[in-house]
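Now for one record:
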Amino acid sequence: MGKKKNEDKIVLKKESALIESSREQLTLTQEKAFNMLLLNAAEQMKKNPNLDRFTIPASTILEYYEIGKQHYLYLKNELKKLEKIIIEYNLLGKDKTWITGAFPLLSSFEYNHGTITYQLPFQIKDRILEHKMYATFGLLATKFFRSKYTLALYEILMDYINSPKVPEMDIETYKKLIGAEHKSYHTYELIETIFKRPVEELNSNKYVPFTVSYKLIRGVRDKIVGVRFELELKDWYLKKLDETITDISPEAKELTALLPERYQTSLVATLIQGHLDQYPYEDVREAIEKAVKEKGFVPAKIEQYLKEKHSAKSLDTAKD
């Protein structure tokens, strides 16, 4: 990673199935550092798609997250554990192209005089440059998070920021997703620790592109059985498309310009690019033209039209 890169331009594409993973054994430092390792691997693979090992100075991670330059040994020990910590992935089943499974976040890790060399499991590496379903989010907001529960919730909500709604989650799945699966709390402590504080931290962070509220779902004897989150996008998130954004083709920018002004943003352009990577240009354009005539959240409508059209094509092919 280039040290001179503007912090607000550091954007990570992370697979939905990886976001929807178990985090019980992970620390906040491990999760933040791993996101940097993913970003670093993507940048190096753009230059050499056949690359199998990646390197990054430990100082890059320490300085970006303001951990302190002197904590090399601490970072080394935290990352070394990622070879042994097994996570389950795709817990919400959002990405149908992933099967259910588990793997360690790093398949190998070496540390030599301040340089980290690492390998990623093939399930992650194979999708570094060929994402199927993913979230796009800036790392700037995450450097200020003080809780791993906040970071996990942020990633989950960013994965659904352009969807009609965030799916309702049962309490046990939610606890697993944010890394509180085996924590035992009284009801008040539970609400305070895994709902109220993370939501407050997100809403007080100026770099998070939304504000969020939540509603607890209660069952027999008022027991908490699930949670529902609602997002409200911030005005700055709806800014005009940044013409300097990388990895966006002229076709994606052209199609983004067809959208209402409030949707002509860098992140929406990235979503359009993702559709173009998966579907023909004509189909994406048709979906946009239909979506802008409908009520509702346009990016979600575009995705809905594309899925419906290609599901119908798949059925027709199967019949033939």
Observations:
- The chain is about 40% helix and 15% strand.
- The CA atoms of residues 216 and 227 lie 5 Å apart.
- The longest strand covers residues 224-233.
- The chain has a mean pLDDT of 88.
